[in-house]
Queue: 3 jobs
Job 1
Amino acid sequence: MKFIVGCNLEEFEKYYKTLDDLHNYFKTIGLTDVTFGEIGDIEKLLIKSDPSHLIVWKQNNEIIGHTIWHESNTDEHRKGAPRDKKDKQMLRRLIGTKKDFIELHEIWLKTKHRGNGHGKKFFQFFENFIKKRGYNSIIYYTDNPTAIAICRKRGYREDFLKTENWHVFYLNLNAK
């Protein structure tokens, strides 16, 4: 298994349409603004503006997982997209001050490939990748028990956004 930074958008869209487990997950968390099987407009914009914002996980030349990330800060999700008050307060508690960071926007690994240590390998890869690009902080929102355990083991600081039922993790790469 290897991580590929950037991916042909057409190849990624083909893979994305096959992710019934991801689309079922979206339904369980109540995402209503998602067309199932389609990459969202925000995600497309992120990838088109900088293909490195998409990292695919490949095994035997097949995409088995992916990550989409973007620059963010305590006040805005992305440029021009302000955070709500509770999210902003939680981030300030976690981080301490207004700060820029990288946000892991979406992480997905096909169900049949889970339990093989790929998640742990991804976080090691991603932290090094982001640090080499000159960034020093990562934020990640998740409700996945495996991801929660990985972040805790890797030393991420944690808070909880009750209104959304998300664990929120923060890692200062300069402290590692």
Job 2
Amino acid sequence: MLEAVRLSHKKQLNTAFIIFRMTVNNIIKTRRTLFMFLISSSTLLVALLYLVLRESDNMGISGYAFFAYIMGTLQIRGILLLLSVFYGSTVFSDELDRKTLVYLQSRPVSGWSLLLAKYFSAFAITAIFLVFSTAAPYLVLMAADSPADIIKNLDILGIDLLVMLLGAAAYCALMLMASILLKKPVLWGLTFTLLWENTVVNIPALINKFTLLHWLQSIFPHPAATNKFLSLLNPKPSSVQTSITMLLILTVIFILISGFAYRKKEFKLN
């Protein structure tokens, strides 16, 4: 009996891995990935532009200070959100659009395994782009100050990468949930992340804790980007331990809701 259960679980895992691999291959071949690569490359392009301007205009700002600025503006409030929305909300809805969900549901794999395979596909691609868009400008800008600064500030880079991965995990889970519960999840996701997250996170008191961005910025080693009016509100960050715990809990909650919604929902493929 135990051997039969073990073999069944192994078969489920193998099938889920096949779906994961197929999904990643399909994602890589889309025009969306080319567009996301260009978006991810913007941090590197901005870093290179800074080097050109610094040589010609004798800019006083250091490479590290400019890296912190890029991370606090482009990266955490832009690229992280866009990547998570476009991959987290489409990795499942694409199957509906292509009418291939029936084929996947006919595979000998449980709904939970299928959903997790889809989730980790979105997370993997998002994480790869985020690592690139974080590490590439870091190497360029730290070497511009001094090659020794690359080693000196590795702890900062490590925290940046941790924040990006936690953010990708949480946002991809949220967007996966949206793709199952809502129509037009990309539009909903863009509205939520670029408007709600980027605005409400600046409001003090309890309401800013209803954003994932609050918990991410609480462990982010760079100053938060905001306009002059919102900066006067001066919201207080939460503790690092609480922030990491909340991000992990919310990620699990979003995945659980996605799984139960997937089991209950009847998908129309016509």
Job 3
Amino acid sequence: MRWYVLHALSGHEEKVAQTLRHLVTLGKLGDDVDEILVPYETKLETHKGKKRTVQRKMYPGYVLVKMNLTNENRHTLRQVQGVIGFIGSADAPQPLTEVEISQIFARMDQEEPEVDLAYAVGDTVKVVTGPFTEAIGKVREIEIERRKVKIMVSVFGRDTQVELDFEQVEPFEPEEIQSGVL
């Protein structure tokens, strides 16, 4: 049995997986399908100064199926509502390699949630908590392991580097200035 990737309509991955599981229980796919998976990973998001852990699809629009591929199975799977097709050519879907599968499972089993930042080095951010609240600065450095960000802010007219937690800053979008005709 090999892992194949089904391309599904984005947002319908779970519905497709549920339909495939139902077909397996009805015996319409025989013993050729072993496992059906929509891979998720845990991410740590910061929004408006609040941390939260969320489950995100690793590959939106795709469902993994461990199976023995036959012409009958391929035809049956392509007929499922929400399925666009297999990854690979239409005549010969390409199975995933063992390395690719082990990387996917390693990412799914990751204990520490991956940090999903809304800003990068060079972006302008606003400090939302702490002694520099309301200060605007540019991101100089991001230290993922320590969960720290270093930004340059103006203190008494001088640029000063400040180290803050990820949760203390958020992206800053200046209000668009209405430009009139001169």
